[in-house]
Model the fold of this input.
Amino acid sequence: MNDILMKSQAYDLDEMAITRFGIPSKNLMGEAGRNISKFIKDNIRNIKSVGIVAGKGNNGGDGFAAAFYLHKLDYNITIFSINSVDCLKPDSLHYYNKCIKNNIPIIVNSEPPSKKTSFDLIVDSILGIGFNGELKENVKKWSRWINQNSLILSCDIPTGVNSDTGNISIDTVKADYTITMGYPKIGMFLEPGKSYSGLITSVDIGFPKNIDELSGIKWKAITDNHIKKIIKPLDRDTHKYNQGKVLVLAGSKGMTGAAYLATMGALRSGCGIIKVFTPSSLNDIYEKKITEGMTVSCDDLGKGFFLKENYNQIMDNIDWADVVLIGPGLGAEIETIELLKALFNSIDKPMVIDADGFGPFYNDKNLINQLKNEYVLTPHIGELSKLFGVNSENIKEDIISYIEKITSSKLGVIVAKNAPTLISDGNYGYINSSGNPGLATAGTGDVLSGMIASFISQGYNLIESTVVSVYIHGYAADIISKKTSERGMIASDLLIEIPNILSEYEL
Done:
């Protein structure tokens, strides 16, 4: 997996390089410029003329350094310095002067050119990772001009993208390529910042490799190679009880499909045996839909949902299970909520809590901290907003900080279903690289919760189980979208692809 930095971590790493390892900051800037020029030479064909738009800070300095090295490679370079020379920071001024000495044209503090330009490539080096909020008008006029050009490369991060949240300003630069220094920044993986970053390439500019020493959650991008390292082939002498036992509490009148999808998500991911609890008035439906699992009927007095009186019957089966999945389609009836509160105070097995399983937490935030064993929470944005008592837009605008808050106890794992999905245990965080908008349909989250429970039951730890499940879940959606469409995808489609994908990793 590839390491990803928050803004504060990037600043700390820069400071570590300079003060602890004695690497001059202008050397880092020079390596940034050299790597940008090398990328252009190696990867972008038919480029002769390059326009570079530089700001006054270190990001602008990267642009000046890139101009110097591109000039040495015989590219036709024109630099637009949007600030006067006396505004430039010392390191940026150093490379500005090198460009002057090499007779590279620099147009200082001017208006953008006309729309029609002859540049084959525009390099955006106006603002870096420190940007937040809205672009100032003097920057917007340049970003608008940059966006009128056909091919754009951004230094470190596109101007106008918030490096921590992925939020964008009006007139944010929409890059075809982003060359990021050392490590990518998390805002480039979160929408809408991801859509503005184009092809992201990290380059080594000499930063120390001590990123585990940085404070805060250590974020990584999930890749196919990591999944290959986690999943192990089945033992030849295994049997169903060794493959994991999953207990499922899911479904209610009108939502029996949630129980089915969660159950099949678990079975299709390899658990050996599954026991599904059902409201008695719906038992016939469960029996017909869930033919590969066991069902346990709980008296519901004909109401179509679970009652607090079902507590003893459920608890009598807990010892049997390796993991308990609670939530999909349970509904929000008060009697069901009371049952869940009692179960959460008693169950001492690992739990995967999804969907309606969050109901008790909305009015009792401390209940999460009272859970007796490890757990996985799988909220979408709306459920996160209820957990924190804020609107969904607040969550979207700064989802990382809310993840940090909910994992501060470091007792469980959160799977925040977002674009992309984020996973964290409070120490490490993982950003999914698979999936598409086709997953935005009812039931896909039920399948995912079943998958996570399945891998936990098979002996994988919480992080391994969530990382594998989220990635394969998204991978399945990617395959389906190519066969049919994103728009026409339904949750049960995933159940067909999951075992096919798993076969790739069982060799």
Observations:
- The CA atoms of residues 306 and 336 lie 5 Å apart.
- The longest strand covers residues 273-279.
- The longest helix spans residues 462-483.
- The chain has two domains: 2-216, 225-505.
